[in-house]
């Protein structure tokens, strides 16, 4: 069964709450995965003018995702560019700042504690008889010949609870069915980088073989794993200030806005085989295998953590094989924008952007008595809808699911700026 349970854990942790200006509904479900690896932030009062919503889709362990959820909000506020009102640059700076912390001794110790791992590796057992060792190795090789790459990663990942990039389903649906009449007019644009592909120098044949073996070595296969080096997380962060929606994304998660029921992508999925990503990976000395994985490991090309792939000392952080540098998009909100969805690839592998928008839109409607469903109820239905009936397929619908919903109450002020009134409409935020 690999990284899956024999039966899905469909027990949901759900709650509803809020304040005078908005209501919340939250639900989380482990699903088929043997552990929960995603995290999120839902902070409608990030500061007096700004709201923050985010999703972190952990892989190789939950520790980096949980660390980001705990510390990234404050790191964003600490950036000088944030204090200067340059939100796009602030998000870029914050992503790189928290990523750089993953290599410090203090943070590594905290990640180890979050992961619940022993501080020291247990001594390896020795086999006394050479014949017994040969027999055991032969049996092991025979068994591994029929195993999938995911099962091999689990075996050589120190019996970790999840395979590398066992993507958690995390989604944020933020209702924007209001129109802020005034607000800060911040000029922001899209951000992306393209690195020119460079040929690597040729050397002796033996050196090339050794280099290739090193490149194709997967995190943890040397018998040792370190949080932040062998684990990481995608990150999608949305800031709402006045009429401006600023979305930063690193990884293969996605942000979508509903505009009068039409899905509008607010982020770009970072896949290793894409032209921009492939050029950067090759320039950093890496390669992408036929199955779309960086050096045969990660099947995404940007993430926080994963410093095993960030060891080229001649290149800056944003040019490493796996980069934490986010792409940033900005949208000026108006009454045509209904809600926003932020989700990891597990959701989008089940439903398209438009299908998710349709699913949420239909359930946001009032019933014949003029009532609306509790937000946590809508989220729970979405989780159940995305859950696969079994694990016999390609893994679609077999990941963790977490959801947090927010409804902007009628007649109250815009959460991004208390001086801005809303039209008589209901807003909703869902985080899965």
UniProtKB/TrEMBL annotation:
Molecular function GO terms recorded: metal ion binding; protein serine/threonine phosphatase activity
Record keywords, A-Z: Acetylation, Hydrolase, Lipoprotein, Magnesium, Manganese, Membrane, Metal-binding, Methylation, Myristate, Phosphoprotein, Protein phosphatase, Repeat
Cellular component per GO, a single term: membrane
SUPFAM superfamilies listed in its UniProt record: PP2C-like (SSF81606)
Topology within the bilayer: Lipid-anchor
Start-end of Acidic residues biased regions: 184-216
Gene Ontology BP, a term: regulation of cell cycle
EC number: 3.1.3.16
Catalytic activity: O-phospho-L-threonyl-[protein] + H2O = L-threonyl-[protein] + phosphate
InterPro entries found in the cross-reference section: PP2C, PP2C_BS, PPM-type-like_dom_sf, PPM-type_phosphatase-like_dom
Pfam families: PP2C (PF00481)
Region listing for Disordered, in residue ranges: 1-20, 184-232
KW Manganese (keyword) present: yes
Enzyme class: hydrolase
Cofactor section: Mg(2+); Mn(2+)
Domain named PPM-type phosphatase: residues: 23-408
SMART domains, per database record: PP2Cc
Localization, UniProt: Membrane
Keyword DNA-binding: no
Alphabetical list of PANTHER family matching this protein: PROTEIN PHOSPHATASE 1G, PROTEIN PHOSPHATASE 2C
Oligomer status and interactors: Interacts with NOL3; may dephosphorylate NOL3.
Similarity comment: Belongs to the PP2C family.
Protein name per UniProt: Protein phosphatase 1G
